[in-house]
Amino acid sequence: MTVSPYKEDTPIPDQSFPINVFTVTGIHLHWHDHIEWIYVKEGKVRIQIDAAYEQLHKGELAFVNTKQLHSAVQLTPDTELICIVFNEALVRGSGLDITELHYFMPYLQQPMKWPSLMRQSDPYIEEMNDAFSRLIHEFIRKDAGFELLIKAELLRIFGLYFRYAQKDAALAPPRLQKAHDLTRLLHMLRERYSESISINEAARMVSLSPNHFCRIFKQVTGKTFVEYIHIIRVQEAEQLLIETDIPITEIGDLVGFSNMTYFGRVFKKIKNVTPSDIRRRIPSP
Prior knowledge:
The protein is of the alpha+beta class and 285 residues long. The chain has 10 helices and 9 strands. It folds into 2 domains: 153 residues, Regulatory protein AraC (Jelly Rolls, Sandwich); 98 residues, Arc Repressor Mutant, subunit A.
């Protein structure tokens, strides 16, 4: 059986204007290199963002940062979600104005300091929902100047979000970080997948015993620690097989497999084909 890798290559039709909008009833567990905003248009869902699980109702929002593991499970038959996926380049100022330093860099580099959800009772929610509606309208119609208006609505939503985050931080009681919060560990694994990181080392990073860590990790990701690392490595290896002419033996080593026989066995278990099969499928130039 083929195991779906967690990393998703979300389709972005126009790379010069990197945004897409999807209407779905649920979201499989995955992560990607884009920012994603999830709006509950109808019904109720159970949202997972890294190690956190919450229920969201009609009119509520979830904010998913780049590289955050996330999913949404439909809880009512009428559930409808609108997902806006976009690259950070669409809203960042390339360091040329103050918004980059004050807002976007802190958000993108330290996602745990920002709220992930907005409820119906939260301030600015109605204004943000109205902005979502206008953005989607422009995306669908694509009239002259729609790119400018979409970007304007993205910035409006971000501005209201940052305003809410500041107020939320000022009013909320101090939040104790749970010992089993795996968010930073998951980010680290996605960045350092080629390195040899043992279960004991990973458990120490989140202040858990190895046994307890293994149970919590499986609960959050649906995979064992070793399976999770293998899936990331195989996904990266597949990309190198398709996009480069690096020899297969070198690719295995680059993604963290020191034994090529083991690399081939793990790759076939996850992708249901061998690395050589992937290479043979690539059309000749």
